[in-house]
Amino acid sequence: MKKFHQLRTEGADSLATARLTAERVAAHRPAVLLATMLLMPAIAHAQVVSGGTSPTTILDNIATFILGPFGEVIAVLAIIGIGIAFMIGRAGLGLIGGVIGGLVLIFGASYLVTTFVGAGG
Predict the structure, then answer these.
(1) Which of 26, 46, 80, 83 has its CA 20 to 30 A from that of 8?
(2) DSSP H or E segment with residue 45
């Protein structure tokens, strides 16, 4: 019974502490909101873009990101995952072929498009 009373007292203390913290945060919320609203335009206008960015540049950056080191790490993790699944009997040759075929299409996409469409410029 003594242990129950001790746990109940600790729980009440924790609840009181949480309540005081919530009240303290709520008291400062309007000031934080006002400061955020006042500083946000300054932060947003701090970036200067000369001439704008074309959609082609944006898409090229996305493709470079996916086909760069990030994409290579994802491909390695996919191959590791499919290897582990095959090792424990959860994947068949069809799934392995699908993953390998997908990786070939992803990383060969630039070459395939250049081959089909031709080098623009």
Answers:
(1) 26
(2) none
Domain boundaries, the chain: 1-47, 55-117
Neighbouring C-beta atoms of residue 101, cutoff 10 Å: 10
Fill in the DSSP letter of residue 121. Answer: -
Single-letter amino acid code for the residue at 114:
T
pLDDT tens for each residue of the chain, 121 residues long: 666 556 566 666 777 787 778 788 778 788 877 777 777 765 555 555 566 678 888 899 999 999 999 999 999 999 999 999 999 999 999 999 999 999 999 999 989 888 888 876 5
Q: What is the pTM of this model?
A: 0.52
Cα separation, 93 vs 2, whole angstroms: 63
Distance separating alpha carbons of residues 59 and 54, to the nearest angstrom: 9
Alpha-carbon distance 95 to 83, whole Å? 11
Of 95, 99, 113, 14, the residue nearest 59 (C-alpha): 113
Q: Show the tokens assigned to 29.
A: 């919320």
